[in-house]
Specification:
This protein starts with a helix and ends with a strand. Strand 7 and strand 8 form a beta hairpin. It is built from three helices and eight strands; from the N terminus they run H-H-H-E-E-E-E-E-E-E-E. The strands form two sheets. A four-stranded antiparallel beta sheet has the order 1-2-3-6. 30% of the residues are buried. Helices cover 19% and strands 26% of the residues. By secondary structure, it is an alpha+beta fold.
């Protein structure tokens, strides 16, 4: 092989390695998000990792009929979101809510789609304003949202569709988050503080 060609190849390899190393050094802030989105804590990751792919906790999907809403938020076309219960457990914040159709026509949650034909609350978030952090809905071991996914074709007038979503729990001294469910307006909800 030509010595000049061998030297050129060696230089090319060295430059490629240097580029990879410099990219690695530049990505040291990869865990930081300018929008304040946080990654799930180890406890929340473990809960999400071990959560079954298609069968969420039955308690989480049941509509708490014996409780009055602790918060309400309007949506479009007569839909009202009602938050019934909030629980902090094992690093996970679970929110139980309902989408109530107060209008006179059937409501299809088209805007709640996740890019497929599945209606989902996967884009839901809880914002801890005290620490400027946004928590997105947790995912299970198969990458599915730990939230209401199959909202059905439509919500009929007078019907309330049960909803739930799970997030990483903010620090225990945080007593309020701004919650956004699907395409409903943001609403502040109180959190129990230990």
């Amino acid at each position: 092989m030509n010595p000049h060609r061998r030297a050129t190849e060696a230089l090319g390899i060295a430059l490629s390695a240097a580029a990879v190393l410099s990219l690695g050094a530049c990505s040291s802030d990869a865990g930081k998000d300018p929008a304040g989105v946080t990654k799930a804590s180890p406890a929340a990751q473990e809960t999400a990792r071990t959560a079954p792919a298609a069968s969420p906790d039955t308690e989480a999907t049941a509509l708490p009929t014996d409780q009055k809403p602790i918060a309400r938020t309007p949506g479009d076309k007569g839909i009202v979101g009602e938050v019934y219960k909030v629980q902090r457990k094992d690093g996970v914040l679970t929110v139980w809510a309902g989408a109530k159709n107060t209008g006179s026509e059937s409501y299809a949650a088209y805007n709640w789609r996740n890019g497929t034909d599945v209606y989902t609350l996967a884009g839901s978030s809880a914002v801890d304003k005290k620490n400027s952090k946004r928590y997105m809905a947790l995912l299970d071991s198969s990458g599915r949202c730990l939230c209401s996914e199959k909202l059905g074709d439509s919500i009929e007038p007078g019907e309330t569709r049960p909803l739930y979503v799970q997030f990483q729990d903010p620090p225990q001294n945080v007593d309020e988050v701004d919650l956004q469910l699907g395409n409903l307006q943001v609403v502040s909800i109180p959190l129990p503080v230990s």
